[in-house]
Write a structure and sequence with these properties.
four-stranded antiparallel beta sheet; DNA-binding; 20% strand; globular; alpha+beta
DNA sequence: CAGATGCCCTGGGCGC
DNA sequence: TGCGCCCAGGGCATCT
């Protein structure tokens, strides 16, 4: 579930709790979670004895710089990164565990195994550079400053429908099914509105709403849906779901116009919007 | 290039 | 209590 605000909330927790800590051992027991590596033991060999120095994020991907290595984590649909003092039993589906000096554990728990953990093989990964495996990602709306005019120009150059474009990680990194619906509702635009049909003001407004919503969600620790599967590193759910105006609100009243929220199957998943105030 | 499918997985909720 | 469906934050490959 995790999209940019959830990944950023996890990043902040990791930054506060793991920077400066030495890695004593890595237990990579879930082969599918480390599928980019032929040998899961490679994570232990390469990370053992290093110290976490920087915790970064590009879109939905998290990066931990440790020594010469960059560990990349994607939470997929059901992934969690949970801290523990190591005294409680590891939850089911703890596929990768970083064990720090002193006993603190960072557990990658992922029932559906759509997420993954891998060490970058990028040529000489340096502090500021993106790992090579993340080179395909578009700009990150919270960390890569982009003038509104440039965003509008890029957006209007594309003929594809707005929701597909917002969710295209090569165009823009970090937006998924929840926030695309919330952003489009705030901007008064339908999911299937062609990007090229927007005028300059509409495109700029869409950008403004995107930044506002992403920042507001980060402030509230992201969104946890009814299953409460998303948690931060301390195991706490997010609170931004209380602010959702369309997502998972089929049949409820639109706070903006009093219309009724509709759910529509699209692209193999659900899209929520208000047919009255989104054009 | 744009769009529609289907697949990779486990688990929770619901109707019967 | 159990069984069979349907659904789920993502991403990728493969068709038209």
């Amino acid at each position: 579930m995790p999209e940019l605000p959830e990944a950023e909330t996890v990043r902040r927790g990791l930054e506060a709790e793991t920077v400066g800590r030495g890695i004593a051992r890595v237990d990579a027991t879930g082969p599918r979670s480390v599928r980019r590596h032929r040998d899961p033991a490679e994570l232990d060999r390469r990370l053992r004895g290093t110290t976490v120095e920087v915790v970064g994020r590009v879109g939905k991907f998290l990066t931990l710089d440790a020594g010469e290595e960059v560990l990349v984590v994607h939470l997929g649909m059901s992934g969690q990164l949970l801290l523990s003092d190591g005294r409680d039993p590891r939850p089911k589906h703890s596929h990768v565990v970083l064990v720090f000096e002193g006993g603190l554990e960072l557990r990658f728990v992922d029932p559906r195994t759509f997420g993954q953990v891998f060490l970058s093989d990028g040529p000489e990964p340096s502090r500021r550079a993106r790992p090579a495996e993340l080179a395909h990602l578009g700009f990150d709306p919270l960390t890569d400053a982009l003038p509104a005019a440039r965003f509008a120009a890029r957006l209007r150059a594309r003929r594809t429908m707005l929701k597909a474009l917002l969710m295209d990680q090569r165009f823009l990194a970090g937006i998924g099914n929840i926030y695309s619906d919330e952003i489009l509702h705030a901007a008064g635009l339908r999911y299937d509105h062609p990007a090229s049909a927007l005028d300059e003001d509409q495109a700029r407004a869409l950008y403004r709403h995107m930044l506002r919503i992403l920042r507001a969600s980060v402030r509230l620790g992201g969104s946890s849906l009814s299953d409460m599967q998303y948690r931060d590193v301390y195991g706490r759910p997010g609170r931004y779901q209380q602010r959702h105006l369309v997502f998972a609100r089929e049949g409820l009243t639109c706070a903006g116009c009093g219309g009724t929220i509709v759910r529509q199957a699209w692209g193999g998943r659900s899209t929520f919007f208000c047919p009255r105030c989104q054009i």
